[in-house]
Each structure stands twice: as C-alpha cells, then as structure tokens.
C-alpha cells in the first residue's frame, strides 16, 4: 500500500519476533476470553465469528497473512469474537506495549493501522448491507470474489482460478444461508456461466458478470492515503 522505511520495517518485524503454530480448526481466541494479546497472521487463513442466541454461528470476516488479529484488546478486556483457523496457521503474538511503542515512535505506521481498521469497517458495512438487502446468489458471489481478491493480495500472480478453502457450511455462516441453499446458489452461478468448480478449485469464467451479480466493491482499492504523515 505504502513503501515503508527500514525503521518501519524493523518496527513491524519486532511485532513478529515470536511465533505460535495453530492447527486447522483450532481456536486462537474464544468469544469472551480475558486477555490482552494481539497477533499478526503470518501463514494460513482464519475466520472471526460470534455465536448467536439460538446457537448458530455468524462468520464476520475471513483473515489472511498480514492481517492483524484481536485488535479489540486495545479497547476491551473481553474478546468480542472467536478467531478460528481454517487452515494450518502461524501467528505472531504481541502485547499492548508493543503497539504503544509503534504509536509513539512511528506515527505513520499507527496511521496505517487506523486505515486498515477503516477498511475492515467498510467491508463489514458491505456485509451487513448484503445480509439485509441482497439476494442469496449475490451474497455467495460476493464471498467468492472476496476470497480470491484477498488471496491475490498475498499472491499477486493469482489469476481467475484459486483454491476456495471454504466449506459450503462456512459460506452459509458468512452469508446467513443454509449449506443446502449455498449449494443451490453455486450450481446456479455455474449454470449461468459465471464460475466453474473442479477438484476443490474455483474458476471465474465471467468475472465481470460475477461482480455485477454480487454488487461487489473491493475495499482494498481506490484508497486515498495522501494525508499520511511523513515517516520518522
């Protein structure tokens, strides 16, 4: 997003000095846990979710390498969400003092963390609007685009074919649909010539049409960072 100086790189490296492996399906943090640790996701894919009163699960976000996890610990004593590994993962834990040092010594990095949080807020706003106002097919199409575009940020060479790494139940928990309904929407997207599926891989046949179907906005493009303070 922004070229970093050697000092800024070193400050971020200090956040990742320790490593902690997490196996697929493991919970890094559970909703209402007490703690102050935050994390950088170094490898793998994770999700954040909450349990609803009826026992169902709502997936809020999918998380990819480079994402900051558990940042609510800066404001709350209890975790508001559960963080679960969708694949084998590696995370780097750090505490509040490490973030305080970044804010004090590297104001531009602190500003970039604020930008990141605003991107996440906008993406969650899109998800909320989709749950209330768009069709089931649009919601599923949006998840497919989100997963590919976030993976492409990690691997810029990624094209129209990618490993989805989500079950239909997980897609359903993110979109407010049953797994059966998700399956029906995926088949419909295939029949309309928008996607193809084979051996666990998803391929976009008509990406422009898929984005149109989803009313999708990529919140990681079109950023205005001209206001950022200079590096120190």
TrEMBL record:
Gene3D superfamilies: Jelly Rolls, Winged helix-like DNA-binding domain superfamily/Winged helix DNA-binding domain. Residues 12-87 form the Cyclic nucleotide-binding domain. This is Crp/Fnr family transcriptional regulator. Keywords: DNA-binding, Transcription, Transcription regulation. It comes from the Bacteria. InterPro entries: cNMP-bd_dom, cNMP-bd_dom_sf, Env_Response_Regulators, HTH_CRP, RmlC-like_jellyroll, WH-like_DNA-bd_sf, WH_DNA-bd_sf. SUPFAM superfamilies: cAMP-binding domain-like, Winged helix' DNA-binding domain. It comes from Sphingomonas qilianensis.
């Amino acid at each position: 997003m922004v070229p970093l100086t050697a000092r800024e790189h070193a400050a971020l490296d200090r956040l990742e000095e320790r490593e902690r492996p997490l196996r697929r399906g493991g919970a890094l943090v559970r909703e209402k846990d007490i703690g102050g640790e935050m994390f950088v996701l170094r490898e793998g894919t994770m999700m954040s979710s909450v349990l609803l009163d009826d026992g169902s699960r709502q997936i809020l976000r999918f998380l990819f390498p480079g994402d900051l996890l558990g940042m609510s610990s800066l404001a709350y004593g209890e975790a508001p969400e559960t963080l679960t590994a969708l694949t084998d993962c590696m995370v780097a834990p750090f505490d509040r003092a490490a973030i305080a040092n970044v804010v004090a010594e590297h104001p531009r990095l602190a500003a970039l963390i604020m930008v990141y949080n605003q991107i996440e807020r906008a993406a969650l706003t899109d998800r909320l609007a989709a749950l209330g106002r768009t069709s089931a097919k649009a919601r599923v199409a949006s998840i497919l685009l989100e997963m590919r575009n976030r993976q492409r940020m990690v691997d810029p060479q990624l094209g129209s074919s990618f490993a989805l790494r989500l079950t239909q139940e997980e897609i359903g928990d993110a979109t407010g649909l049953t797994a059966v309904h998700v399956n029906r929407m995926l088949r419909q997207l295939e029949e309309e010539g928008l996607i193809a599926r084979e051996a666990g891989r998803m391929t976009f046949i008509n990406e422009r049409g898929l984005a149109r179907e989803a009313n999708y906005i990529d919140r990681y493009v079109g950023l205005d960072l001209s206001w950022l303070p200079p590096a120190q």
